[in-house]
Amino acid sequence: MSALSALALICTLTPSPAPSSSELMAQHILAELETHGVATESLRIVDHDVKRGVQVDMGNGDEWPAIHAKILAADILVISTPIWMGHPCSVAQQVMERLDADLSETDDDGRPVMYGKVATVAVVGNEDGAHKTIADLMQGLNDVGFSLPAQGGTYWVGEAMQTVDFKDLEKVPEPVASTNAGLARNAVHLARFLRSDKYPAK
């Protein structure tokens, strides 16, 4: 059996190469996944021309199809987003809207194409809304067909209405580090199980 692979979609509003708390959080998770032998990759959605819409390919230079191909090739998906006004940021919502197209995409056996894939969610911010943001994204991911590992969400929220971001910390707080480690461990366990025992076809 080949090594598992993971893809992190960074939903920051900040283009590269500027620092991003969402990217930093995702990198910590990917590092934990790598300790379990997982091959990892990440990309910032805002660095690509991803069109608005709910189809796999919106045409006119849409770069989502290439990103979609990476999602299909990965065993584990990590979505990392900041909180804005108590909700997932607009880029994360755009990703969910594009994934909506996969509700009608099936494999050769009639299973939704995201069956057998594991999804996790990471959230950063300095306002309330981490649990709601994780819940919103996990519900959508599950609707599309992703499987969610136990404690598959992680977050860091700073003091409300202040300016300290996750990327400003000298080190990752221990509760966040241990949560990230557990998320990675459980995601790998579930991904390996789904590789060896697929969901039943219709």
Summary keywords:
single chain, 202 residues, alpha/beta, Rossmann fold, six-stranded mixed sheet, 18% strand, globular
Task: Explain what you see.
The structure is a single chain. This protein has 202 residues and is α/β, with parallel strands linked by helices. It has one domain (5-196): Rossmann fold, CATH 3.40.50.360. It contains five helices and six strands, in the order βαβαββαβαβα. The longest helix has 23 residues, at 174-196. It is globular, with a radius of gyration of 16 Å. The model has no long low-confidence stretch (mean pLDDT 95). This is Flavodoxin. Residues 16-159 form the NADPH-dependent FMN reductase-like domain.
Share of β-strand residues: 15-25%
CATH class: Alpha Beta
Mean pLDDT: 95
- What is the level-2 CATH architecture name? 3-Layer(aba) Sandwich
The DSSP helix count reads 5
Helix-strand sequence: EHEHEEHEHEH
CATH topology-level name: Rossmann fold
Tally of structural domains: 1
Report the C-alpha radius of gyration, rounded.
16 Å
CATH homologous superfamily designation: Flavodoxin domain
How many E-type strands? Answer: 6
- Principal-axis shape equals globular
Report, as a whole number of angstroms, the end-to-end distance. Answer: 25 Å
Structural category is alpha/beta
Most strands sheet: 6 strands, mixed
> Helical residue percent?
25-40%
The poorly predicted ranges are none
Pfam families: FMN_red
Domain NADPH-dependent FMN reductase-like: 16-159
InterPro entries: Flavoprotein-like_sf (IPR029039), FMN_Rdtase-like_dom (IPR005025)
Protein name: Flavodoxin
